Task: structure prediction
Amino acid sequence: MTKITCLGAGSHSFGLSTLITLLQSEVLRGAEIALVDTNQESLDLISALANWLNFEWGSGKQISSHSSHQNALNDSDFVISAIEVQPRERLWQQDFMLGSQYGLRQPYAENGGPGGFAHAARNVNTILDIAHDMEKMCPSAWYLNFSNPLHRICYLINEYTSIKSIGLCHQLAIGYAMVAKALAVDYAIEGAETLLSTHADPKNADAQQRLALAGMQHFKITAVGLNHFTWMVELRDRATGEDLYPLFRQRWQTLPAEFEPLTQKIFAFFGLFPIPGDEHLCEYLPWMTCSRTKPWQKYDLSLYDWQFYEANRADLWRQVAKDIRQKQNINRYSHAHSEGAIEIIEAMLTDSDYLWEAVNLPNQGTIVGLPENAVVEFPAKIRQTGFTPINQFELPKGILALLQREISTAQLSIDAVVRGDRQLALQSLLLDPVIDDLDLAEKVLEEILVANKMHLPQFF
Result:
């Protein structure tokens, strides 16, 4: 019997959709799904939902609930993790504000910059504890990671434990949405004019999803790089195999100048199309924090709406609780968007040689010129034994240099936190494109460590 342990099961971003797709899987009929969340209220709610749906749908799964991962890991075959130190939005806002008193303006503060350092650092000790417990309780299990900053967290597990891990992210969908917008006339795709931005704004969500689905239907993107920092190396018609990159270049140049202006500029200067959209792309570029030019205004780099998303998640969970209590609206849970976990698990269990277009794994020569142990994103075939890249990729020198800088920054940050080494932490911030002053790096590091002291005792 297959056993799947879901850590951070009460995560609305990944936990809900992942649970639903696991329940709907016929391949997993008879499997145990162990739900884990340290927030008892969230655990009770997601467990009630799982048991309700499992019964109503006749899914044939065994559901168990655990407030500690140690009670759930034993004999697990797969461990799906979407854990975050809470409260997520308030800590994210704190990360953004850390350097503001010194005049530092981060572009987004989630996965890159000092905010990315702090975000990753808070999760290191918890994730290491889980991985070390897995070494004892389920040493052969795969760790499927959704936690950000994704390539930093995956590097942590791969470098400092013996556990097999893979990182999964849905950001490639944004690339598909932008390609669909550019080629809408050629492929008679309706509603392309409604996609005005890829920014994390609720008013963009419907258009993003609609165009992404249309893009996946018509096109096949091959993208490689780092998570949230990938580059389209090939674009083909999914049915005919025709090379569409030349046509896409032409059509992209006719889009309005205000649509993803940073992506437009980087595409023109570096020659390959950046997949993530402006708000993620901006975190890894060294030209996005200048107080003189104010690039956040020039490129309309809006911040994450922390208050809205915190309140929105609470509203959504209240609706879930009401549906369970009144046994109503079950159809709203029938069409969850897959985050990739179910495809990976089913492909490994059936040894199907299935292609997944964005896996995050150690490089091992997949992208020429990047470190072997760098966690990079690429398309791969899935078998019971693991993952095989579809190709070896060579990127232009300029793009390679940007990726190399981020890899060094990210690896130093994780090495520093694992060892409690302030010197390495300082080097990580000094390499980060957001930091432009030696003294500022020291001040910001101290702010990060003090603000997160309870999560980083190794530095004190």
Summary: The longest helix spans residues 113-137. DSSP finds 16 helices and twelve strands in the chain.
